[in-house]
Write a structure and sequence with these properties.
Layout (H helix, E strand, L loop, with lengths): L1 E5 L6 H5 L6 E18 L6 E20 L4 H7 L9 E10 L4 E10 L11 H13 L3 H16 L9 E5 L3 H4 L5 E3 L1 H4 L6 E6 L2 E9 L7 E4 L1 H6 L11 E6 L15 E7 L10 E3 L1 H7 L6 E9 L5 E11 L16 E4 L1 H6 L6 H4 L3 E6 L1 H18 L1 H11 L5 H28 L2
Parallel strand pairs: 6-10, 7-9, 12-16, 13-15
Antiparallel strand pairs: 1-3, 2-3, 2-4, 4-5, 6-11, 7-10, 8-9, 8-11, 12-17, 13-16, 14-15, 14-17
Helix pairs in contact: 3-4, 11-13, 12-13
């Protein structure tokens, strides 16, 4: 008995039974650290057909079949593996079986001589894959296949996927919540920017940027928050591509603190918030940002103008949570949304009409400068009350210093101590 992992058109039970009538469907499965590509043009249809290629952090969804040894040759013949110049070759893979809740060793197929550029599959071919993904209850994978079908219908010639391949961020502890997108320096070139624009399928937003050699060229790592806000639903990465451009002159101004950033979707405010000129966040978002009720956040919005240029606007607002609506049981806003009133949306450059701003992503992060000002004001009172004590200590240990100089030294010491303690307090509150 051969355990066969099907990921393309062979996910269809009808297609498998046509070549192996005694085959039995085991159930759905996933292949980790691989992504689907279209590395071969079919001689029969002249369009691209599916292939799998190794890709750390990616995932391919499919179906497991048990094929009798006597009927395995029918599958080999269907995949062109027995031709003089084979179209596909058999590969050994380790997949996770959902039905058995364990890893299984299986056989699958990869293109024998893949092309350098992905070939464009037909809409019918992708629709067949999409139908199987929906039948097997792979909602996030089905969303990805819909995006691929849309790209295939919009593209006349390869490449099918322009931009940087998106995988997940796997260094959570070192990240400390500081960045949302990581890119190889050879991909972006020399940049000192701490921010970048990320564009996907008509949506564009600002993201905190980390340029590092740890990421492969021509790819990027994005955390789940940013992927979700841009419309890539699900924890797994399948092979989406995005455009990443550093924002010149937009460095993170307080690198010593490294605040967390969140990408949230703009939502229309409830009537009780319409006059506040604040932003309303879910309490979980406040906790993730490391700030308290009423403290300031910075919101950045980017959009593409009519001439193709990118414009960025930012505002600083107090952040609050909101009580439950009287007519609904759910809290609002949702954990992935930020509520902004009309005045704030106008300052950020959003259009007035609801369709123009609803569910558009913005970057939200603590306003470190405002937090520092608040801490200095809070601790400054305490330290300046101690200036007299500092003057007395200086008189005791440096009696030859003039009284005016002693006073100036005491004030300077109090100011420096206030700033240092405020900075340490901010770092502690924003630590992750």
């Amino acid at each position: 008995m051969v355990l066969y992992f099907a990921y393309g058109s062979n996910m269809s039970e009808e297609a498998v039974l046509g070549r192996a009538p005694s085959a039995a469907r085991v159930g759905k499965a996933r292949l980790p650290d691989h992504r689907i590509r279209f590395g071969r043009k079919s001689k029969r249809t002249g369009t691209g057909v599916a292939d799998i290629v190794a890709g750390p952090g990616f995932m391919v969804m499919g179906v497991l079949y048990e094929i009798p040894d006597s009927e395995w040759k029918g599958i080999l013949r269907k995949e062109g593996a027995l031709m003089k110049e084979p179209a596909y070759r058999v590969v050994d893979v380790t997949v996770f079986s959902f039905a058995e809740r364990r890893n299984r060793a299986a056989k699958s197929f990869a293109v024998a001589s893949p092309s350098d550029v992905e070939q464009i599959p037909s809409a019918d071919y992708l629709s067949a894959m999409l139908a199987q993904a929906e039948e097997m209850n792979f909602p996030a994978y089905a969303l990805f296949l819909r995006w691929l079908r849309k790209r295939a219908m919009e593209t006349d010639v390869p490449p099918l996927r322009e931009g940087l391949l998106v995988s997940g961020t796997n260094v959570r502890n070192r990240a400390g919540g500081h960045y949302l997108v990581r890119v190889n320096p050879r991909t972006l070139g020399t940049t000192k920017s701490g921010l970048a624009t990320v564009e996907f399928d008509g949506r564009v937003t600002v993201a905190a940027l980390d340029v590092t050699e740890e990421v492969a060229e021509h790819s990027c790592e994005m955390d789940q928050n940013l992927r979700h806000a841009l419309g890539m639903i699900g924890q797994n990465c399948y092979g989406y591509t995005v455009s990443v451009q550093p924002l010149s002159g937009m460095r993170n101004r307080v690198d010593l603190v490294r605040p967390r950033s969140l990408t949230l979707l703009v939502h229309q405010t409830n009537w009780i918030d319409s006059e506040k000129r604040i932003c309303v966040l879910h309490e979980r978002s406040l906790a993730l940002l490391g700030i308290k009720e009423g403290e300031h956040v910075e919101i950045l919005n980017v959009w593409r103008g009519e001439f193709g240029d990118l414009s960025v606007k930012r505002i600083k607002l107090r952040a609050h949570t909101s009580e439950k609506r009287a007519d609904q049981t759910r809290e609002y806003p949702g954990f992935d949304h930020v509520h902004l009133d009309r005045e704030c949306r106008t300052e950020l450059g959003f259009p007035v009409d609801r369709a123009g701003f609803l569910n558009r992503p913005v970057l939200v992060r603590p306003s470190v400068r405002r937090l520092l000002q608040q801490r200095i004001a809070r601790y400054g009172v305490t330290f300046f009350l101690g200036i007299a004590s500092l003057s007395q200590l200086l008189a005791l240990f440096a009696p030859t210093l003039p009284s005016l100089l002693r006073g100036l030294v005491a004030i300077a010491t109090a100011v420096l101590a206030t700033i240092v303690v405020a900075w340490l307090d901010i770092r502690a509150s924003l630590a992750h």
